[in-house]
Specification:
Length: 306
């Protein structure tokens, strides 16, 4: 037999109440049960805990020294339980999220705001880096959740599809292709293309669309930031291909967005986390809000107008 928490609680309560009867009421136990717990604890410790008189019980000298440790042990456990319950109720904790800059700008702010209202005691760290860096942070355990388009060959991930966006042509309203409801990829041949540099997830999907249409993507201009790409399109230097949600923060009246056909190329945005890691209550709540936020992406200002 070993010392149990029930024994320690019974000991501390009897010591504080000075009575087995009052301790039993405080512990919501029958008095014989409290007496049995004290006898068990005395047997484990090897000394008597209380001297009983007709009016009250008093601590023995050895028990008085042990009381401080017993109070500390029960108090530590009580605090640990309270902290655990706070984590379960999303009143405390920390969550780290990784996403490429475009998604970090279009999707995450609203979700983090909603999460702050749902779980005010949980802090959030957002890493807005390119997709390869996000994948490395996830593998190293630096982020708990990651959002983006991840290669299918990456193993050990739980994947939740948030949205599948159809790649679309963005051009000026006075461009010849603006009048087409669904221009084909083949119609982009010879049209100056402005796009992100190689290594970006959107760039990979754009090249796939060109290849499936029997064309070779030969960008006229390559840039690092989607905002600069859109500004160059607006200035009349060419067209670009992107998912509709990307236009959200960069709406412009002079631009139109047209879904590309033949082939129809979709880009899946996923939430991923390591399969050996279970989701905390806070992370599960964030995932719920993330799915709601992702479902609203097509209706964002700018994308809707386009």
């Amino acid at each position: 037999m070993s010392i149990t928490l029930r024994q320690l609680r019974a000991f501390v309560t009897v010591a504080e109440k000075g009575s087995f009867t009052r301790a039993a009421r405080a512990l919501h136990m029958a008095q014989p049960m409290v007496s049995a717990l004290i006898r068990e604890l005395e047997a484990e410790l090897g000394f008597r805990l209380f001297d009983r008189t007709t009016r009250r019980v008093e601590l023995t000298a050895a028990a008085a020294e042990f009381l401080t440790d017993a109070r500390r042990m029960t108090g530590d456990l009580d605090r640990a339980v309270r902290r655990a319950r706070d984590i379960g109720a999303r009143r405390r904790g920390h969550l780290s999220i990784g996403a490429p800059p475009l998604l970090a700008a279009t999707l995450l702010p609203g979700v983090i705001r909603a999460f702050a209202e749902s779980a005010p005691g949980v802090s959030v760290t957002l890493y807005d880096r390119h997709i390869a860096a996000i994948g490395a942070l996830l593998r190293d355990g630096e982020v708990q959740l990651a959002v983006g388009t991840f290669r299918r060959e990456e193993q050990g991930l739980v994947r939740v599809t948030l949205i599948a966006d159809r790649l679309s042509l963005l051009c000026r309203a006075d461009h010849p292709l603006a009048g087409r409801a669904e221009p084909g990829w083949a119609e982009l041949e010879g049209v100056p293309l402005i796009t992100l540099r190689p290594g970006n997830g959107i760039r990979d999907q754009v090249e796939r669309g060109y290849e499936e249409a029997g064309l070779r993507a030969a960008p006229a201009i390559e840039l690092d930031q989607i905002g600069t790409v859109i500004a160059m399109v607006e200035a009349g230097f060419g067209v670009t291909v992107l998912p509709p949600y990307a236009l959200g923060p960069f709406a412009a009246q002079s631009l139109v967005l047209r879904p590309l056909a033949r082939p129809s190329v979709t880009r899946e945005i996923e939430l991923v986390y390591r399969e050996e890691r279970s989701l905390s209550p806070a992370a599960a709540e964030f995932v719920r809000l993330l799915r709601i936020g992702a479902a609203r992406l097509p209706a964002m200002p700018g994308a809707a107008a386009a």
